[in-house]
Amino acid sequence: MINIYDLKTAQKTILKRPPLTMMDFPDDVIEITEGFFGPGTTPPSAVTEILRSVRDDGDDALRHWSRTFDKVEVEDFRVPAEQFRKAFDGLAPSLQTAMQKSAERIRAFHEKQPLPDWRSDEMGGTLGQRVTAIERVGIYVPGGTAPLPSSLLMSVIPAQVAGVKRIVICTPPEAHPSILAAAYLCGCEEVYQVGGAQAIAAMAFGTDSIPRVDKITGAGNLYVTLAKQQVYGTVGLDNLAGPTETMVIADSTANPGWVAADLLAQAEHDVLASSILLTPDEDFAKSVQTEVVRQLPGLSRAEIIKTSMAQLGGIVLVPDLEVAAELANAYAAEHLCLSVAEPQVLADQINNAGGFFMGEGSFEVLGDYVAGPSHVMPTGGTARFASPLNVMDFVKISSIIALDKATSKALSPLAAEFARSEQLTAHANAAEIRLEDANE
Fold it and tell me: N or C end of the chain, less CB within 10 A?
């Protein structure tokens, strides 16, 4: 079910991260891919075929892939806006309250993020930067077996705070009512029922029904992530939010039932999800293992959890918390949960994580829904250089250069010197001609 590993074995297996394009895909993923595309087809090559077809054939290709993957015939991809309010009104009052509170906290958190527009006259004239919102953003919201209205809130609200004018949402057909309800809560106008790699293609290239966007954000399954990777450059991306992952560091002060519950919660996302526990206490490790077995039968996605934990999850015995910190820093987890007596002391030893969940009261599920920061976080080790989705993902910075005449004259010979060293004589001429004209 969930195995206990010694450190050496773990470093060769569950702690090892192959690049996304070089990973050995699980047999069931290969089987599904080949079932649709034929023997020998890999997930990346399947995604390439989908992208090419949508780029060339637009809506016709989208309808083809909807029939193929989703087994539905879609006539109109755009969901009528009047369905949004109807979907929200159809929710249980308790869920309406939860979504409203979540939206409030997400907005409040992101409104505290600064947008650094500035000007300075200290270097001769005016220098500075101008921050402007990206005009058109596409947001992918997972649906399928586990619709995620929370992902809509976590992606749309930061974009709204940034000032994005047009937000295009894609979600698999038939659009789940909870996702439409979240769209209503955010005041969204455009929701299109198309999922998977074909949705990424539609937003990247544009079709008759779905507008081309400037940047695509939002998490998805393996095929969505591969599609985002392949369209980068045609559009901007937030990150490659692939299979989700949690790393828990726990000592003997932690509650084994709670830690087990957190690992199970992560594993139910996807057969490719990773749930890893690092602990120096072997008795605690065995207690967590026992709790996983005890809690599993009551969970609706037990089969997914079993596969996920068997393939990519595990409990790793480490010599001490210092070693755990080193491993966590190297692994750079999307979610790093510190279920230890002194979480801040441990956090100070770690630089790389999408989110630090400090202590057992700040468990990951709260971050998934209602804490405030976006739950769209860097995966696959990209937390070494990437950040969770935030307001800055939805703006761009332009440099402002407005030098006064004296400064321009003083800098021109320096620019010309640089240009000649790079054998760019036209560049040097553009600087020197101004000096000649000024002296005439």
Answer: C
CA dist., res. 345 & res. 129, Å (int)? 37
Domain 4-17+243-384 carries which CATH code?
3.40.50.1980
Of 183, 188, 261, 247, the closest CA to residue 377 belongs to 247
Fold of the domain built from segment(s) 82-239+391-396: Rossmann fold (3.40.50)
Phi, psi of 358 (to 5 degrees): -90, 100
Average pLDDT over residues 374-399: 94
Q: Using 50, 70 and 90 to split pLDDT, how confident is the model at 225?
A: confident
**DSSP characters over 147-185:** --HHHHHHHHHHHHHHT-SEEEEEEPSSPPHHHHHHHHH
The catalytic position among 334, 360, 364, 375 is 334
Confirm whether 427 is a catalytic residue.
Answer: no
Q: How far apart are the first and last CA of the chain?
A: 84
Q: Enumerate the CATH 3.40.50.1980 domain ranges in the chain, comma separated.
A: 4-17+243-384, 82-239+391-396
> Of 245, 335, 360, 364, which residue is the catalytic one?
335
Query: With bands split at pLDDT 50, 70 and 90, how would you rate the model's confidence at 126?
Result: very high
Q: Which residue from 104, 111, 161 is spatially nearest to 395, judged by alpha carbons?
A: 161
Computed over every residue of the chain, the mean pLDDT equals: 93
375 is catalytic: no
| pTM as predicted | 0.90
Interatomic CA distance for residues 336 and 246, integer angstroms: 6
Q: Cα dist. 365→361, 362, 415 in Å?
A: 10, 8, 55
Provide the pLDDT for residue 420: 95
